[in-house]
Specification:
It is built from 8 helices and 4 strands; from the N terminus they run H-H-H-H-E-H-E-E-E-H-H-H. With 233 residues, it is mainly alpha-helical. The strands form 2 sheets. A two-stranded parallel sheet has the order 1-2. Strands 3-4 form a two-stranded antiparallel ribbon.
Amino acid sequence: MCIYKLIWDDFCSWLLELIKPAYGSPIDAQTHAELIDIFENNLRLLHPFMPFLSEELWHNITDRTKEEALIVSSWPAASEIDDHTLSVFSHTMEMITSIRSIRKQKNISTKVPMQLLETSSQAEYYENVISKLANIDSFQIVKDLPQQVLPFRVGTAAYYLPFSVENPEEEIAKLTEELNYQKGFLVGVQKKLSNTSFVDNAPEQVVQTERKKESDALEKISQIEQQIAKLQG
């Protein structure tokens, strides 16, 4: 599962999109070379599980002799892990995922640039990555938030996307419907967690998953209630 996530999620979904040059522009030589190096290491990891496919791809990258086959290549050497960079990029990825989700929920085109607001500097993230992958053209720390914003959280850090609602009543109705759904969902989760038989006998991971569902639902309910309050003035 780790190798699957590494290749499908980290490499295909994030890295390739991040390094993709502007339309009509070629990728620079250094980035291309580093990408090939990463891809070859991925193939080395994949080979024990998918030997024929990975070997075929290995030889398609460049002409190789039998002595240079993937099956006899060296295993990728471990290198020092930069925990800080990984933490910052993980936070950045969650921000991008949240912004994309909000765009989808509110039917905001990915081609429309948006602002990102904070009321204080809370966590480190990569602005250039968010700008490219979430089309955010402005990052600001403000004392007072606009009347209409779309809030989201990553961990304990709160962020806001200014958003103009043309029909407040219609938006309030949608938010109220979502609020009722989240409250109903929360009741179901809390009912399960209040069952001592479930908490005492279920695997710890299952119980923790339910507790995470509870905290996420509480956070969503709080955010929706804030949005409704702002729209109501």
